[in-house]
Amino acid sequence: MDASGGDQAVITPEPPAYCQNHLGPNDTLPLAKLDWEKVSVPATIGLWIFLSSIARIGFSVSPLKKYIPESCVLICIGLVIGMVVLLMPGDSDVKLESDMFFLFLLPPIMLEAGYFMPMKPFINNLSTILMFAVVGTLFNAATIGLSLYAVSEAGWLGYQDDKPIRISLLECFTFSSLISAVDPVAVIAVFEEIHVNQVLFILVFGESLLNDAVTVVLYRMFEAFNEIGQDNLVAWDIYAGFLSFFIVGLGGVIVGAMFGFLAAFTSRFTNHIRVIEPVFVFIISYLSYLMAEMMSLSSIMSIVTCAMVMKPYVEENFSSRSLTTTQNAIKMLSSISETIIFIFLGVSTLTEHYNHTWNTVFVLYTLVFIFIYRAAGCLWQSVLVNRFRMKRITNKDMFIMSYGGIRGAIAFSLSALLCANIVAANKIFFTTTIVVVMFTMFVQGITIKPIVNLLAVKKHEHTEPTMNEEIFSRVNDHALAGMELILGREGQNHLRQRWIHFNNKYLKLLLIRDHKKVRHQQILDVYQRLTEQAAADYIEMHGAFHPTGSNAIKQPATDETDGLNEFKPSVNSVSSDVPRISVVEPDVEIQPVGSRKSQEARRQKNILVKSMFRPSVSEPPRRKESLMYRSMKIQLQHKLQRQRRTGAAVPHHRQQSGHHAHHGDHHHTKQPEKEVPQMSPPWAQEKPQSELTSLPPWRHQDVKPAKVTALPPWLQHDEDGYATDSEGSLLV
């Protein structure tokens, strides 16, 4: 009851949606029912993705693939869906929401762009990319905005309600800031299909990626100026807008780098539960995007930086299966997002008919100004940066860069965010943005491939660099860094070497779990294949190579065999096409040859006989390297000693030292024993002087060691005049 003694009204709350539509006392239990409203939104999106995927499969095998980009086909599918939606009765308000685009569809595409970014070309061209992304975007925004304002002030936009159409200066700058930026989604969709050279692709793609910071700053700054009002602006507002330009871009980079190092450090401890390894890549990258968006920073810069920072570390910590899963999942999510974006572009073009206002003069002048100022900006910026580039931007590349300024979903979404209460000409801007996006996607996107072929622009060949190319590239980097150091200026090559040193010394120790493992296993694999090929060639030539099993006939150790167990060759024991050669371990350890052999030399010879000179994966890289070269030295020494003892021909410079040994043979004459076939590997055999020039680098050790006439004090001479180290090992 209330204070007056009357009854208080009881308000019964309305039951929630899941409490409605229940069965009544007179209803019967249905076997099944259809509830489309419950799953309408996800079912519609899933159906669109399914149909678009079927269309992409058909497009990939059709001849249209040579002439039309895939993104144009997806937009056409969206236009067809939009027409169907318009013909259907009921509400036809189907559009691409800005929050849906920026929070759910754009992050997977940017994650793929950052994760698969070619790091070295991007870093080498970073100064040029920043020039086009920052200065070029500011130039285009300023010139397009001023030109459109001049058209408006001239009264060329026509009349509305018997009044001339006027667009203010701030509104023109707001529109020019969103329409002047090249769209990274559209650039990826078009330029990856025409396969231009890597430098040209990285310049256009890097510009579209980094000018997001400029676009977002300019758009938000001019939108805030419109809210304040042109007459109410003060000097501090302009200074704050200028400072926010640096804060938004650099802040996004810092946030992305922090989350990238966090992902790398977390992946160090996932070796016991491999299933969750890909989760950290997606979750931490997405958190970096949301954090930057929450702080009004450049979210695209954040997620791209995060992907670029964490990639080299997580690939070292992840297993091969987790790494394959991660890469395939990133590409799959990016492909799905691109499909939805381009379909929604086509659908929104027709369904948002209430948000359109057509102005022919404004549309035509916008297209003209975009092409003119894009070409002019690329021209003077290319001329400027060519003064400081070793590899200049050619005239063909300049034309492709100016012609490839494709606008896309980012400009479309920003134009949809314009409020009519703040920007009075928002409908004109929305319609013009759709026309510009469609024109650049269809006209420029379709014609750019024939133009590239007509101009014979150099294209990129997808080939893995060989070992020699990688070695030359690293040597070239070190040489350029050394030249910069000699000249007294620290350029990008010197900074790169300092970063590599800092990364190897500190970051890898902290972020990589097993930082001491062999990095370039392919080098050892190549060495193993060469060793096996040499053994197979020897078997094909001589019939056998240390056969195993019952075919091995062991001979007693003699002086001629240097304490090794020799075997009689058997032609049928080992086939020439055997992929791996099995070597029998000797029953006894190899005895030292000569009185000056150390324990280290004996241990190395035992290892060589047991492993056939193959380096073990568990040994450190330096040990493997020394093992390979010392094995050749030891075998050469064995061969020379066998020649001395069996009386074989020796070089001219050894005849004098062997004279006394032959003189003593008159008093002690013995019957020569049956010569045992020498089983030295092919790279330990003598080669004629004419064949030395055609030998590969790893077989140059076949050459006999030259006699040393002047040695440093720490080296000695053996009885034949050959240089040896302090342990008596032969130096080659």
In the sheet with the most strands, the strands line up as 1-2
Class from secondary-structure proportions: mainly alpha
**How many separate helices?**
22
Radius of gyration (Å):
38 Å
Residue-averaged pLDDT, rounded?
76
Distance between the ends: 110 Å
Q: Which range best describes the helical content: under 10%, 10-25%, 25-40%, 40-55%, 55-70% or over 70%?
A: 55-70%
State the low-pLDDT regions, or none: 545-597, 609-625, 649-680, 689-695, 698-732
Q: What is the element string, with H for helices and E for strands?
A: HHHHHEEHHHHHHHHHHHHHHHHHEE
Indicate the proportion of strand residues.
under 5%
* Number of DSSP strand runs: 4
| Major pleated sheet | 2 strands, antiparallel
Given the C-alpha coordinates, what overall shape results?
Answer: globular
Question: What would your notes on this structure say?
Answer:
There is one protein chain. This protein has 732 residues and is mostly helical. 59% of the residues lie in helices and 1% in strands. The chain contains 22 helices and four strands. It has helices spanning 36-60, 70-87, 98-115, 119-124, 126-153, 169-179, 184-194, 198-228, 235-267, 277-294, 299-317, 320-351, 360-385, 395-403, 409-416, 426-455, 467-487, 492-511, 521-542, 599-611, 621-646, 659-663; strands at 159-160, 163-164, 716-717, 723-724. The protein has a two-stranded antiparallel ribbon with strand order 1-2. Helix 20 (599-611) packs across helix 21. The longest helix is centred in the middle third of the chain and has 33 residues, at 235-267.
